[in-house]
Write a structure and sequence with these properties.
By secondary structure, the chain is α/β, with parallel strands linked by helices.
Length: 332
């Protein structure tokens, strides 16, 4: 996934002279996860450069750049560090198109690694995506595999609205099944590792069926797509796994079609349960699929606690917890 994201940035820097990249350590060093590795050397100091440790200033500068014609891609080193920039994103970037009656817009992309899995503790492991899905005017993207990561990032950069691009750090170097504290296989053995060279787009607002099934629908995104796939196999349930890919805009049509077919729904996300994005998904499924449901909607999520570093793998929704939820909705 690191290579796929790097390829997307490389393609867009070469394709569009208005695209530029900046953030903490993204230039000479190539980013703490190496996503921008080699881009400064290839494209120059004015296209990929380092910024001070000031997230509010990074995003504020990007908003101004976007308003005057550039397409900045900024990296917030960890999603946990994004809060100093939250006011800029909510009060400025998300509202610029509306408050200017369309005269200005903010075509910026904010890339940030999110979620746990690297034993980073409370300040390097949070999953704050729900905070941004609540903000009208922002788009929110969470890829689950290298192919989608590249196509979605290109789509985000080309989009005229501000896009929050959350990169699951547990998936940077390989897919997880949730049973282990390391990748279970390299991406090269995974079907979603086929990443075309050059320019291609995965449209924002379009979900994917990661696994077809007839008995129950699992809604997931990011790392949890892989956990859901492992859980379906472990529980021996004919589950359909929907990879949402983008949370805003949300592909409600695909969700409704799947739940109306299966009659059951399990929602999985890594973030804390209360007010997590799963609550919005559950409300939408209830509103649109009530008469098709044969069991209560189930949510499997992180604990309602500050990130528990010492119990990281217990905190994660793993295949066992998801499999238990699948069996419960099947028995209801």
């Amino acid at each position: 996934m690191v290579q796929a994201l790097n390829s997307a940035l490389d393609v867009m820097l070469a394709r569009d002279p208005d695209v530029l990249i900046f953030g903490e350590d993204v230039g000479y060093f190539g980013g703490v996860f190496r996503v921008t590795d080699g881009l400064q050397k290839k494209h120059g100091l004015t296209r990929c450069f380092d910024a001070p440790i000031a997230e509010g200033g990074i995003v504020a500068a990007a908003i101004g750049m976007g308003a005057y014609g550039l397409r900045p891609v900024v990296e917030i080193q960890f999603a946990d560090y994004i809060y100093p920039a939250y006011d800029q994103l909510v009060s400025e970037a998300a509202r610029l198109r509306y408050r200017s009656a369309g005269d200005f817009f903010a075509p910026l992309t904010v890339r940030t690694p999110y979620g746990g899995g690297i034993f980073g503790g409370q300040t390097h492991s949070q999953s704050p995506e729900a905070l941004f899905t609540h903000v009208a005017g922002l788009k929110t993207v969470v890829p689950s595999n290298p192919h989608d990561a590249k196509g979605l990032l290109i789509a985000a950069i080309e989009d005229d609205d501000p896009v929050m691009f959350f990169e699951p750090k547990r998936l940077y170097n390989g897919p997880f099944d949730g049973w282990h504290d390391k990748p279970v296989e390299p991406w090269s053995k995974h079907p979603a590792s086929d990443v075309p060279e050059g320019h291609y787009v995965v449209p924002l607002g379009k979900a994917a069926i990661a696994r077809a099934g007839a008995d129950v629908t699992i809604l997931a995104y990011g790392t949890m797509v892989h956990v859901a796939l492992a859980a379906a196999a472990h529980a021996e349930v004919d589950a359909e796994v929907i990879d949402l890919r983008t949370l805003v805009p949300l592909d409600l049509e695909s969700i409704v079609a799947s739940v109306e077919k299966t009659g059951r729904c399990v929602i999985v996300h890594e973030a804390t349960r209360t007010s997590g994005f799963g609550a919005e998904l559950a409300a939408l499924v209830q509103e649109h699929c009530f008469y098709a449901l044969e069991a209560p909607i189930a949510r499997v999520a992180g604990w309602d606690t500050p990130y528990p570093h010492a119990f990281e793998w217990e905190y994660f929704p793993g295949p066992k917890r998801v499999a238990d939820a699948l069996r419960a909705v099947m028995a209801a």
